[in-house]
Write a structure and sequence with these properties.
Layout: E1 5-6, E2 14-15, E3 22-28, E4 38-45, E5 49-50, E6 57-65, E7 69-73, E8 76-80, E9 85-89, E10 94-98, E11 103-111, E12 115-122, E13 126-128, E14 135-139, E15 145-146, E16 149-150, E17 156-159, E18 164-168, E19 171-178
Antiparallel strand pairs: 1-17, 2-3, 3-4, 4-11, 5-10, 6-9, 6-11, 7-8, 7-10, 12-19, 13-18, 14-17, 14-19, 15-16, 15-18
């Protein structure tokens, strides 16, 4: 089965829940009312911005750059360099200040009562989606490929349970498993 590729350049930006930033949704399980139990998106952060509150949600974030981002999570300072991963709860009070213009981050948000998730940065390998839920791959460089199909930076693929693919390059991999 051919793995479908989602081109980042074709995604439509939309406002954050709090209206203070822009995001592009890669994948989610949203229904017609935009209710979801998981969502994977890429956000643009310009200047110091508070994050939207998402009670009951676990958030994983990967710094995509350029440069680092300074986070304040419940009053505690954290700095994420490019490719660093952090997780926090949707109830946490979070603000972000990028160190360079054009900063992006990848967000993996899952309802804690429905999903477990893991997020990490990986190098070229063979990846199989586990049976408990979807696996998402996001290219981190312009020279990546899935099954020898070239990708641009931030292009993505959603593997359904049981699918396998071969990767070339660096990727963010997000694995979701239904509780």
């Amino acid at each position: 089965m051919t793995v479908p590729i989602l081109e980042y350049s074709a995604l439509t930006p939309r406002a954050w829940k709090n209206g203070l930033g822009i995001t592009r949704t890669l994948f989610d399980d949203a229904d017609a009312t935009d209710a979801w139990t998981w969502r994977i998106s890429i956000a643009e952060i310009t200047g110091t911005q508070p994050y939207s509150a998402y009670p009951g949600v676990r958030r994983g974030q990967v710094a995509l750059g350029p440069g680092a981002v300074d986070l304040v999570i419940n009053g505690r300072a954290e700095t994420l360099a490019v490719d660093d991963v952090i997780a926090f709860d949707g109830e946490d009070e979070v603000s972000a200040t990028p160190r360079e213009a054009g900063f992006l981050d990848l967000n993996v948000m899952t309802r804690r009562d429905a999903w477990d998730s893991t997020v990490e940065v990986i190098d070229a390998t063979t990846v199989s989606a586990e049976p408990g839920g979807p696996t998402t791959l996001i290219a981190l460089d312009d020279d990546g490929a899935i099954d020898d199909r070239p990708l641009a930076r931030l292009d993505a693929a959603l593997l359904e349970p049981g699918m396998t693919c071969t990767l070339r390059g660096r990727f963010v991999i997000a694995r979701l498993r239904r509780i």
